[in-house]
Design a protein that fits this description.
It is a single-pass type I membrane protein. It contains 3 helices and 8 strands, in the order H-E-E-E-E-E-E-E-E-H-H. By secondary structure, the chain is of the alpha+beta class.
Length: 218
Amino acid sequence: MGETDNVRTGVVFTLLMLCLTSNLLSVSHAIWLNLPASGTKCVSEEIQNNVVVLSDYVVISEDHTHPSPTISTKVTSPYGNNLHHRENVTHGQFAFTTNEAGNYLACFWVDGHHPGGGDVSVNLDWKTGIAAKDWESVARKEKIEGVELELRKLEGAVEAIHENLLYLKSREAEMRIVSEKTNGRVAWFSIMSLGICIMVSVLQLWHLKRFFQKKKLI
């Protein structure tokens, strides 16, 4: 009886872990952009260092009387490094591993020779971290499948969450240091301002006293 209960408990625990895995692995974003005929639309995400980013984009055209409009796209790192740049395309893909922590920016705009005019719809599938990993290749390489593969995904998701927590902790420490430095500078500025006000008041009193003494009023 005890062994049966243990088996049932193990099965329930495994199912709960698999459900949790499906929630944790949803680190992808499907974004629908409506690009104006003139102008640029951008999307950004704050990503830590050493994270895999994979994205696909495609122009969705409902006007079948004209050729599909073409767009241009540019992806830059937080320090302005160019990671991806394409012009006159209807679809594309970019993939990279982050070398800098910060906001990564992807911008899209319609090429000048858009025949139909009006807005252009673009579907962007943005994946980062564990969601960008090719699990089919991992399964073939390690010869795993089924529950074992899902547990492998869970392990990767837990590692990603742990890295994110460490990143947030480091950012919190950086922000705390900046806040403490700012508070210190504000305190010194307040003291200096108070000192200057006192000095100006003393000088004004001294000047008025000399003025009245010269006029023989005191």
